[in-house]
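Thread title: Can someone regenerate the structure for this chain?

I was given the following input by a collaborator and told the matching C-alpha cells would be attached. They weren't. Posting the sequence so someone can regenerate them.
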Amino acid sequence: MIKYVAFLRAINVGGHTIIKMADLKQIFESLGLENVQTYIQSGNVIFESDEEDKTSLEKRIASQVEKATGYKMQLFMRTIREVQSIARKSPFTAKANETVHVTFLNEKPHKKHQEALLTFKSDADDFAVKGREVYNLRYDREKSIFSNNFIEKILKMSGTTRNMTVIKKIAEKYK
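Best answer:
Regenerated them for you:
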C-alpha cells in the first residue's frame, strides 16, 4: 500500500466551497481508499491505496468529490515520502515573524514562468521553485505580494498552498 496526501484546492477558505472533513473522509472511503484521515479543515486528506497511477487516482477522487458535493475540485497528490522530502529539503527556514509556504503544482512550471516569478524577490518575499513545488519565504507579511492566486497568475497554472508548519506536521504525524 502507498500512503498518499491529497491537498485539495480552495476548501473551506473565505466561506466558499465548504465541505465538512467527515464528509470528505467518507467520499475518499467510498472509493475503497484505506486508512483515510483528514488534517485540519483546509482539505488535507491522508490515505492509503495500492493504486500506483497517481494521475488516474487523482481523476477518480476529483470526480467523486464533484459528484458528492457539486463542487469541481482540483487536488494535488503526493506520496507521504514526497511530503517528508518537501518538508526536509525546504530552501527556506522561517525566523521570528517570518513564514514559509509551499505551493503544490501538478507539473513543473515552464522555465520562463519560473524566471518571471523570481523577479518578484524583494525585502518582503523570496521564492524558489523545486520541481512541482514553489516555496515562498515571507519576510514581511504587510509588504508581501504572495498569495496562491499570485503564484497561479505568474506561473500560468493552478496550485494550492500550505504553510510549511502544516506540511511538517503532516510529514511527522503520518509517516
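The two ends are 13 Å apart (CA to CA).
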